[in-house]
Every structure is written in C-alpha cells, then in structure tokens.
Amino acid sequence: MEKQQNVIDKIPRDILFQVLDNPYESMIIVDQDGRILFMSKSYEDFIPIPHEEAVGKHLTDVIPNGQLHKVIESGRAKIGATFTVDGQPRVIARIPLKKDGKTIGAYGKLMFWHADKVGELYQRINALHGRLQLFKDTLNEIYRSNYGFDNIIGNSPLIKHAKEIALQSALTDSPVLITGESGTGKEMFAHSIHRASKRRDRPFVSVNCSSIPKELVESELFGYEPGTFTGALRKGKIGKFELAETGTIFLDEIGDMPLNMQVKLMRVLQEKEIEKLGGKPRKIDFRLIAATNRNLEKMMEENTFRNDLYYRLNVVNIRLPPLRVMKEDLSMLVKHFIKEIRQVMPKEVRSISDEAMEIIMRHSWPGNIRELRNMLEGAMIRCRGTRIEAAHLPPGLDKPPCVRLAETISGDSLREQLDKAEKAIIKDALERAGENRSKASKMLGIHRTGLYQKMKKYGL
Q1: Cα 162 to Cα 140: distance, rounded to the nearest angstrom
Q2: Is the dihedral of CA 83, 85, 90, 93 positive or negative?
Q3: Most C-beta atoms within 10 A of its C-beta, which of 107, 221, 237, 406?
Q4: Quick one: average pLDDT of 342-348?
Q5: What are the residues whose beta carbons fall under 8 Å from the beta carbon of 209, sequence distance 6 or more?
Q6: pLDDT tens digits, one per residue of 194-214
Q7: 3-state helix, strand, coil in the chain (%, to 5)
Q8: How far apart are CA 237 and CA 239, in angstroms?
Q9: Could you tell me if 206 and 241 are in contact, meaning their C-beta atoms sit under 8 angstroms apart?
C-alpha cells in the first residue's frame, strides 16, 4: 500500500484530474458530511446544474435520491445498486473512503454509461430467468409425486398406524425408512409423504438401488464433471441428488447398496453436501426417504449394512404389514382396483362374485398388494361380462404353491418332480421372508450357504 502511495504521489495532478474527469467516467466524491468534493463533467447528464456549481453543496440538494451518505454511515460498499434518473434505470457502485480505519467520505461511480445497456442487460437476465424457470417447471413435472395418502386403501389397524406415522413424518425433514415385504406399497408411501410435505411442489426423484450396476452407483447418484473418465458424456452428468435438490430423493431397495457407497451416502446425510466425480463438494438441500424389503438389522450383524447409516436412516421407521395379515381390507382393495383398472381398460367389469371373493380371501398373497392388483387385471381381461367369476381367476389360486405344483408335474421323472417342488418351496420361502436369505434359510431349516447354492441351481 505504501509503495502504491509513493507511485501515486509522483503522478502530476493534471494527469490524475484527467483520469477522474474523463468523459467516460461519471464519478462523484463526497466528504464525511455528505458535501460534494468532486463531480466529473459527465455527471451533468444526471443533474439540473453544471457540475462546477454542485461542488460544495450537500449531495441530496443536487441528487434528491442520492444514497452516498448511507454508505458513509454504514462504512460498507454497495456494488451494483440501482437508482432511477429521468425514468431510466442506472447501475452504480458506492464505495466508502477510509483513512486510519475511519470513514472520511465516499465516492459513487456509474457502472453503465448508457441506459439502453442496462435495459439490454435486464432483458438478457429476464430471458435467462424465464428459461431457468421453464427448466425447473419441466423438471418438477417429470419428477413429481404420483400418489397421495388418499390412494392408500385400507382400514385395518396396522395400515392406519402406518399412515398416521407417515403423515406425521411429512411435517418434518427427517429421514424416513420404510420397511416391508415386496409389493406392500413402500413407494406409494414415499410419494404420499412427499406430496403432504412442504416440498410438494419440488421434484420427487426415485432411485432403485438394486437396478444400478455397482460400478455406476456413484455416478448415478452424484453425477460427474466433463472428461472425468473415458466414455463420460461431453457435458458431464447431473446426479439424482442434484435433480432432487430442494425436493425429495427416494432410495428404494437401500439394502442392496454396495458398502463403499454406504460410506459416501452417510457423509451426504451428515454434511448435507455432495461431490461429483471429478468435482468439488457443494452444499445441497434435500429430503431423503429410503425403503427396503430386507432385514437391515440382520444385515448389520452380517456386516453387509453399516450400523451408522442404519441409525441415520431410521429416524422415522414405517413398517408396512403384509396383505395376509390384513384380510379385512381385501374387499375394499378389490373394489378399488376394479374401479381403477376399468378406467384404463375397455371393460365394463363392476363387481366380483361371492365365490371368487372367497377364493381371494383364502389365498396367502405372498406378492401382497402388487400380486392382488395384477391378478385382478388378468381376471378382468378374461371376463366378458360385468362381474368377475371364480372361473376368471388364475387356476389353483386357492391352493398352496406345492399343491398347485403337484397338479402340473405329472409325466415328469421323480428327479424332475423333486427339483420342481424344491424350487417352488424355496421361492415361496423367499417371498414370505421378504427376500431376506438368512430368514428364508432358517424357515427352510438349511444353512445359508446351502440356500445360496440351491438358488443358483434354480436361477432364483
């Protein structure tokens, strides 16, 4: 600073004056009392008197809406401030002048000489803002929640309890973990929580962790910068977390997330920041809902799921009951699905016979609500009238899996029959265990390794 001062002291006063008073610089300097010490000639375009006469007057006597005295009071610069002269917007910089740490004055400098330049800049900003808003609206339309709590059908105590917890969780931003067997409606609950939350007008981004190859999980969730690796998109990629910014991200099948990604997810939840591949960490605002049909407590014992991540996710836990323990809701669900399917199918089906309903009540529904809906859709396709009859239901629906199998294996060798029976039993156990292999192996009374070998043998 001292060196610069010495250089400035050597510059002739007339040269310094030329710098201050050049026709392309509109500048004004005031003292600590707000009186004008200097005004460039080009400033005359904005005041009603010659610039020489303005010197010595108080700023507000010359420029009624002048704000330099406020900069003196606060001691803080204000860059890019706008004010209006003759109905035209002007953009200026207001900067305090200090000596020995004390504000002794201030100067203002016009940042845009021509008003049309300001107008042009405003137009460009407004155009960009419009395009950005269009992008956000489109994004919100693509990634929006499809269901609400009104879509969750059932009056059984278990489903009512689950809905009550979900409704309460919608009032917060806390992480939610939804657990339950396949087909119990975990994604519908996630949609409903988002739609009832303050983020309802923001994106809802759903990610199925089990469907992403392990080597691509990180780039899918967090994205990557251009040129990060061979084969990367030229412009880089936006990750799912970034797409869900200010909204909700739903991580389905969280139990299938690789251990190395569990560590990164833990950090994202803890720090509320993401880091693209090849990029730098940045803060992000989101709400997380996760779901799984696996037994995470058992996975923690087996060291396949991190304890710290589980506790971070399990702030609010919603356990969805299987359909077999909610038989009292079957009639209501059947009526609902018949009405729903009829809206997208050219059918006049409006009811179901007592005999068909009795068969539905006897079935164990290992595939839960998803199985029920798919079964009814098939029955409606086969039905030519207005009522679903027992004949329209899948053959053997009211019989256990092994009995249904026995009716289809006649003519096979004993070995083939045994293999088919064993495959059906294992498949049924896995469904009842919510795809939890440890639980299924205990139900079958065999070692987990033996179950893995048989699953591999039968392609399960």
Answers
A1: 27
A2: negative
A3: 221
A4: 90
A5: 217, 251, 252, 253, 254, 255, 256, 257
A6: 999 999 999 999 999 988 998
A7: 50, 15, 35
A8: 6
A9: no
User: Buried (b) or exposed (e) across 376-413, using 16+ Cβ within 10 A?
Assistant: bbebbeebeeeebebebbeebbbeebeeebbeeeeeee
Domain 149-319 has CATH 3.40.50.300: yes
CATH of domain 323-392: 1.10.8.60
What pLDDT is attached to residue 85?
63
Cβ neighbours of 417 (radius 10 Å): 15
Tell how strand 316-319 and strand 176-179 pair up. Answer: parallel
Evaluate the CA torsion angle 187, 188, 191, 196 in order and state its sign: negative
Domain 2-111 coded CATH 3.30.2130.10: no
Contact 172, 313 (CB under 8 A): no
Q: What does the domain layout of the chain look like in residue ranges?
A: 2-111, 149-319, 323-392, 401-458
* Backbone angles phi and psi of 3, in degrees to 5: -65, -40
Using CA atoms, how far apart are residues 73 and 106, in angstroms rounded to an integer? Answer: 10
Minimal CA–CA distance to 109: which of 91, 124, 86, 125?
91
Residue 323 has pLDDT above 80, yes or no: yes
Say if CB 83 and CB 65 are below 8 A apart. yes
Q: How many other C-beta atoms can be found within 10 angstroms of the C-beta atom of residue 107?
A: 18
- In single-letter form, the type of residue at position 172 comes to T
CA 307 to chain centroid = 24
Q: Encode 39-84 in three state secondary structure.
A: ECHHHHHHCCCCHHHHCCCEHHHHCCCCCHHHHHHHCCCEEEEEEE
Radius of gyration of the chain from its Cα atoms, rounded to whole angstroms:
35
**Two tokens at 49?**
């008197």
Q: Please tell me the distance from the alpha carbon of residue 85 to that of residue 112, in angstroms, as a whole number.
A: 13
Q: State how far the alpha carbon of 84 is from the alpha carbons of 53, 104, 125, 367, in Å.
A: 22, 26, 19, 69
Structure tokens at 314: 């399990």
Strand blocks (E) in 268-362? 273-275, 281-283, 287-292, 316-319, 351-352
Segment 258-284 mean pLDDT: 93
Residue with tokens 């595939």: 367
Distance CA 377, CA 370 (A): 11
Fold classification of 401-458 (topology level) = Arc Repressor Mutant, subunit A (1.10.10)
Question: One fold for both 2-111 and 323-392?
Answer: no
Residue type, 269: L
Q: Is the confidence at residue 189, as pLDDT, over 80?
A: yes
